[in-house]
Amino acid sequence: MRVVVALGGNALLRRGEPMTAEAQRANVRSAAPALATVAAEHQLVLSHGNGPQVGLLALQAAAYTEVAPYPLDMLGAQSEGMIGYVLEQELGNVMPLDVPLATILTMVEVDPGDPAFADPTKFVGPVYTEREADRLRAEREWAFKPDGNAWRRVVPSPEPRRIFEIRPIRWLLEQGVVLICAGGGGIPTMFTEPDERTLVGVEAVIDKDLASGLLAREVDADLLVMATDVDGVYADWGTPRQRLIERVTAAELRAGAFPAGSMGPKVEAACRFVEATGGRAAIGALTAIHEIVGGAAGTQVVAS
């Protein structure tokens, strides 16, 4: 099978851990053997999150005041290279030497008319006081929203429309390369002047799971796996009646209610993939990735 695995943030940085290079490498090293087992039996394509990494890069950039902070699209590109490098190296250390690996810097097109640009909702970066937020709003024209008792910057999270590098991605897959691409949802880009084909980066964050679902459809994957830090999707989460959903159709799963900030995008990505391809999607713990691919763990989403 051709399997696309979207690695959640827990594969790179666990909750409460310091955002050090050593911590991220250690987490990737612990995940690599399980991913290598999947790659030994199937054709593996990896995508990954980058939220903590982009936040850290933004803080580091802001500390140097001689130049304006770098835009999010450039920070996203930096994170794709950084995370791809660690994934390639640690996977290469546990896979046969003759297996080729590659990281593809991936631009993903978004629509300038996407409603998300009118109502930014994606939190990025550190927390601020209301006074600090007001100052930054005036200085940098950033949007802010309350996050608990603090304020945080918010940016649009538009829908992914097209993967610009899809042709080289498909070609590399035909050559048997284990690919890492569409990291962090891809680098958001758009055409500002369609007649002149002027391509520009966008201060936005594309949802990683939705972009991974688009990637899986575009490479004709048989299976889309969203590997996270929970063992699957739960019905009635947080109540005495909560239960793991083990096998479900896309239509049945759509009938449920799932938080927009956590499980919601994963459920949406799984349903879109299954509905478009008739294939299978799964959501579950990275530690059980081999069993999830085999259909014996996690939440398995099927067409019928």
Search tags:
eight-stranded mixed beta sheet; 304 residues; globular; 37% helix; 17 strands; Carbamate kinase; alpha/beta; 2 domains; four-stranded mixed beta sheet
Describe this structure in words.
There is one protein chain. This protein is an alpha/beta fold and 304 residues long. Helix 1 crosses helix 3, helix 2 crosses helix 3 and helix 6 runs parallel beside helix 8. It contains 9 helices and 17 strands. The protein has an 8-stranded mixed sheet, with helices on both faces. The protein has 2 domains: 254 residues, Carbamate kinase; 36 residues, no CATH class.
Summarize the helices and strands and which ones pair or pack:
Elements: E1 2-7, H1 21-41, E2 43-48, H2 51-63, H3 72-94, E3 101-104, E4 107-109, E5 122-128, H4 130-140, E6 143-147, E7 150-155, E8 162-163, H5 166-174, E9 178-181, E10 187-193, E11 198-201, H6 208-218, E12 223-228, E13 234-235, E14 243-244, E15 247-249, H7 250-254, H8 263-277, E16 280-285, H9 289-293, E17 299-302
Parallel strand pairs: 1-2, 1-12, 2-9, 3-9, 4-10, 12-16, 15-17
Antiparallel strand pairs: 4-8, 5-7, 6-7, 10-11, 13-14, 16-17
Mean pLDDT: 91
For the record, what is the CATH homologous superfamily label of the largest domain? Answer: Acetylglutamate kinase-like
Shape: globular
Elements, N to C (H/E): EHEHHEEEHEEEHEEEHEEEEHHEHE
The CATH class assignment of the largest domain is Alpha Beta
Number of distinct helices: 9
Q: Sketch the major β-sheet.
A: 8 strands, mixed
Major sheet strand order: 3-9-2-1-12-16-17-15
Overall tally of domains:
2
